[in-house]
Design brief:
Blueprint (H helix, E strand, L loop, with lengths): L10 E2 L2 E2 L1 E3 L2 E3 L6 E5 L6 E6 L3 H18 L4 H17 L1 H12 L3 H26 L3 E4 L10 E9 L2 E5 L7 H12 L3 E4 L6 H14 L6 E3 L4 H9 L6 E5 L3 H8 L5 E4 L5 E4 L5 H13 L11 E5 H15 L19 H16 L3 E2 L5 E2 L2 E2 L2 E4 L16 E7 L2 H10 L2 E2 L1 E5 L3 H10 L4 E4 L12 E2 L1 E2 L2 E2 L1 E2 L1 H7 L1 E9 L9
Parallel strand pairs: 2-6, 9-10, 9-12, 10-11, 12-13, 14-15, 14-22, 15-20, 19-20, 22-23
Antiparallel strand pairs: 1-2, 3-4, 5-6, 7-8, 8-28, 13-26, 16-19, 17-18, 21-25, 24-27
Protein name: NADP-dependent glyceraldehyde-3-phosphate dehydrogenase
Pfam family, one: Aldedh
Family: Belongs to the aldehyde dehydrogenase family.
Length: about 500
Amino acid sequence: MAGTGLFAEILDGEVYKYYADGEWKTSSSGKSVSIINPATRKPQYKVQACTQEEVNAVMELAKSAQKSWAKTPLWKRAELLHKAAAILKDNKAPMAESLVKEIAKPAKDSVTEVVRSGDLISYCAEEGVRILGEGKFLLSDSFPGNDRTKYCLTSKIPLGVVLAIPPFNYPVNLAVSKIAPALIAGNSLVLKPPTQGAVSCLHMVHCFHLAGFPKGLISCITGKGSEIGDFLTMHPAVNCISFTGGDTGISISKKAGMIPLQMELGGKDACIVLEDADLDLVASNIIKGGFSYSGQRCTAVKVVLVMESVADELVEKVKAKVAKLTVGPPEDNSDITAVVSESSANFIEGLVMDAKEKGATFCQEYRREGNLIWPLLLDNVRPDMRIAWEEPFGPVVPVLRISSVEEGINHCNASNFGLQGCVFTKDINKAILISDAMETGTVQINSAPARGPDHFPFQGLKDSGIGSQGVTNSINLMTKVKTTVINLPTPSYSMG
């Protein structure tokens, strides 16, 4: 069970502690933040409501610990990361249980997230040794007008303190996707977990604690974003911010100052379906892409743009598959579970009602009980409907019928988002041309949008983000280049 056995020290009565200076602590505020179980809509957990003074203390510890950590050999950093990964995978049950109860993720998917996170940590350790173990050697006479009198040595050095802010939907996986690159690169790490997902993050951080990382190097601060959010993101000790979430990231980017930013802020991922597409394949991918984890994924299929001539057939195939989706509690591994909060459910319902008022075709009856919304396919959606443009983050997939490929591309590119998209066709030449025309960070050909495998580059254009994720890109973003130039008194040529 969560908060017991190996993890007993992270819990104080009914309230989970925060992590700083290698210890689990209670906040001086004497306050806590409740985490509501989305399925039961009742309080499930409580976490510390940390203060700004505690944030200041954590930042000072992080700055100090980072100096020593940067002098730790790469192989030793990697060794500790491998150890943390092993502990994480060996103790997946409490984290998976927390994911089920605080974000209503189906039980089997919760286990998969934890195991995937352990694999990501290990991969990052190995890749970091390769990337950071190599430098560059440049010679001055390769540039016109210069003799060989300068030897330039370049290497990658850490930035300092990295602030990591993961989202609720993959709190463990998207936390370690920030933590592992930061640590292997020689940075210290301050984690601000989402409220929904905080307890699973605290269990994950304890795995790093048990692995034996130095005191102060890793911290996990919980609390209300309204009280410590801006204070964290604008803190002068922070040298890099890696954030995954919604449009809060736009506000962060405007306030953060001159530091590297890694931002993934959502998407309206379009699925363009051509006349020659394998419609059975398309239907399966719309189900997988649109309804997995109740559509609460940045890379979910959020709008289907299908050629009119095949639209009827495709809609019927998707309808048949929607009818087979199970709806219920996450403990039962239901395909569709409660969305994360009542406010989220209300927002989704607002999009659905707008589409209804404007004449969309409901392929199923709209049904909602509390935070649980039954899967819904909306046909004959038009561009004047909110659902055509806004990100529902729920189990609702709109279908727009198009008369040309250009119409589909134009709709995709008119969005303020540009995270991912996909195109279904048997003509690879058309697929490449459409991919090149789509203004998104990634285009999947004949498959639904997806983040991963975790070493693939992952990035968004426009309001979908800044910078690129994936193991290699994250390590590079969390380092900077240091150059040393050796000046020779006379030109020197090898065996000259």
